[in-house]
Specification:
Layout (H helix, E strand, L loop, with lengths): L11 H22 L10 H34 L15 H29 L10 E8 L2 E6 L4 E3 L13 E5 L3 E8 L4 E4 L7 E3 L5 E6 L4 E7 L11 E7 L1 H14 L24
Parallel strand pairs: 1-5, 4-10
Antiparallel strand pairs: 1-2, 2-3, 5-8, 6-7, 6-9, 9-10
Helix pairs in contact: 1-2, 2-3
C-alpha cells in the first residue's frame, strides 16, 4: 500500500518571505490610516477632495502591497540555490491580459471623477455670484487681505516680526467666498491646509480660489512656496465665523479704519497701521 507523501514544511526562506510580507501589510495599513490621511476638511470643496482621495489612496496602497508582496515572494521562492537553473516561466496570456486590462479599468474609473472635481475647483463663480469677494495679496513677507466691497484692508503694511500677529482672513460660514490671489514681487503660494486646496500667487497674474466653509473656527495657513529669507514668517489665519458675527466684525473693522465717516484711516486689524504702529 502506497503511503501518502508527508506534509512538507515550508522552507526557511519562505518563512522569512511570509514574515516580511506580513510586516509590509501591517506597515501599509497603519500608514494608510495615520500619516497618509489628509487634514480634516472644513470647506465643501475640501470635503469633495477628501472623498475622492480616500478610494485613490486605498487602490494605490492595495496595488503597492500586491506588487511588493509578489516581488518578495518571487525573490525567495525562485532564488537559485545551486548549479541548477530554477524553473523557467515563460509567461501567461491570461495574466498578461489581466494586468493590462485591470489597470485600464481602474484609471478610467478614477479619471472621470477627477476631471469633474478639477473642473469644479477651476471654475470659480463670478463676482456677482459669490457672497464675499476678497483679494489676497502676497508680499515679501506678509499677506494683505482686501475686501473691495467694504474698503477694509487687513495688514496693509509690513508687520513687526518681533511681535508678529498673523493677519486674519475673516469669512462667513456657509457662504461662497471668492479669493483673488496675486503677488507684488515674487511667486508665493496661498494655502490653509484644512481647505485641502493650494493656489499660487504669481506677479502680474490673478488666480481665483473659491470655497465655502462648513465649520466655524480659526485655521492656520501660510505661504508654501519658498520666497526668501522670511518665508517661514509669511503666516495668516482663516477665521471662519457665523454670518452675524462676521457682519459685526466687518462693521467694527470699518469703524476702526475710519471708513464709515470717510476719514480714510487704515488700520490693519491684528497687524499695524500705515505709519507702522501696532493696532489696538
Amino acid at each position: 500500500m502506497t503511503q501518502p507523501p508527508a506534509n512538507r514544511r515550508p522552507s526557511n526562506s519562505m518563512v522569512i518571505a511570509g514574515i516580511l510580507i506580513l510586516i509590509l501589510a501591517i506597515v501599509t495599513v497603519y500608514s494608510a490610516f495615520t500619516v497618509f490621511q489628509l487634514p480634516d476638511p472644513v470647506t465643501e470643496q475640501g470635503e469633495r477632495i477628501n472623498t475622492f482621495y480616500q478610494p485613490v489612496m486605498v487602490i494605490s496602497f492595495a496595488v503597492f502591497l500586491l506588487v511588493t508582496s509578489a516581488l518578495i515572494f518571487a525573490v525567495f521562492r525562485y532564488q537559485r540555490r545551486g548549479p541548477e537553473i530554477p524553473e523557467q516561466i515563460h509567461g501567461s496570456s491570461v495574466l498578461e491580459m489581466a494586468w493590462t486590462i485591470i489597470p485600464i479599468i481602474i484609471l478610467v474609473a478614477l479619471f472621470v471623477p477627477a476631471v469633474a472635481l478639477v473642473i469644479d475647483l477651476k471654475t470659480p463663480p463670478s463676482e456677482d455670484e459669490a457672497d464675499i469677494v476678497v483679494e489676497a495679496v502676497g508680499h515679501q513677507w506678509w499677506w494683505e487681505f482686501i475686501y473691495p466691497d467694504s474698503g477694509v484692508r487687513i495688514q496693509s503694511t509690513p508687520p513687526n516680526y518681533d511681535e508678529f500677529d498673523p493677519p486674519a482672513l475673516v469669512v462667513p460660514v456657509g457662504q461662497t467666498v471668492l479669493v483673488k490671489v496675486r503677488s507684488t514681487d515674487v511667486i508665493h503660494s496661498f494655502y490653509a491646509p484644512q481647505t485641502l486646496y493650494k493656489i499660487q500667487a504669481v506677479p502680474g497674474n490673478v488666480n481665483l480660489l473659491h470655497f465655502t466653509v462648513t465649520k466655524a473656527g480659526v485655521y492656520h495657513g501660510q505661504c508654501y512656496q519658498f520666497c526668501g529669507l522670511r518665508h517661514s514668517d509669511m503666516l495668516f489665519v482663516l477665521d471662519a465665523r457665523d454670518p452675524a458675527d462676521y457682519e459685526r466684525w466687518l462693521q467694527q473693522t470699518r469703524q476702526a479704519q475710519g471708513l464709515d465717516d470717510g476719514a480714510g484711516t487704515e488700520i490693519a486689524v491684528g497687524g499695524v497701521s500705515r505709519d507702522g504702529t501696532k493696532a489696538e
